[in-house]
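ok posting inputs for the biotin job
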Amino acid sequence: MTSFKRLIKPLFRDHVFAGRSLLFLEETDSTNMLCLRTPELLTCPGLVVQAQRQTKGIGRMGRKWEQGQGNHLFCSFVLTPPSTIRYPPTLTLLCGLGVSRTIKALGLAEHEILIKWPNDILIGGKKVSGILCQSTIVNNKTVIVAGIGINIKGNADQFPKELLGKVTTLEKHGLDVTPQRLLEVLAIEIEKILQEANKLGTSRLLQKWVQEALCLGKRIWFDKYGRKISGTVTGLDHIGRLVVRGEDNKIHIIDSGQIDFTYS
Ligand code: BTN
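and the output
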């Protein structure tokens, strides 16, 4: 079995949760899968694994994430969540907040970035980033592999046909950034968020998520027991599930699955 230890380099030595060290690879099948099957990576707290290309990148709900090999950021953070995060999906939302703040820190106006619950990052209504968090147990502790893909540049033909018109890149919105720089800013933002979660818990961060995601009042559609229901987003509950007021005035709590909404 390949040993990666000698390829792991320090990144931000003062970080505790995200980006203490970096494993950079030219190619792997999927940075998430690589971490999950490699105990020496899972036992390296604060590690981030970045690949220039993925040959079998995976997305949420069994989808592929294969667009734009070489042009984008493909990375997985190996996270040991602070003890204040008892419900792993909360961490997924916090990573989405980290991505959104990263794009803002690089210069994009706040009103252009929206987080579609749970964690698709959209610019101008089109997806620029997706996050897939997967958990495992190592030495009796939960470890979360937070895989993040951010589209940086390139033409539409790099994306699968079914995504045409649904995806965008940072370059299209005037941001010129290398995958390396993007990863560094991302590690800084996620570290700040997890430091805050560790000290103060997650309730303020989840309130911030609601504000920064720009989702309040959005009309959405979701599946409940095979039925399409529509309603209006009223916020998140204490662990980050989406709270929606249905057209029948009932409150629905959504904890998984896919939502659709109009971007206006
Ligand atoms: C989504 O479906 O929106 C989630 C996409 C997550 C893609 C990233 S790219 C880096 C990491 N490795 C993977 O195989 N997937 C995630």
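notes: The chain has a mean pLDDT of 91. The longest strand covers residues 126-138.
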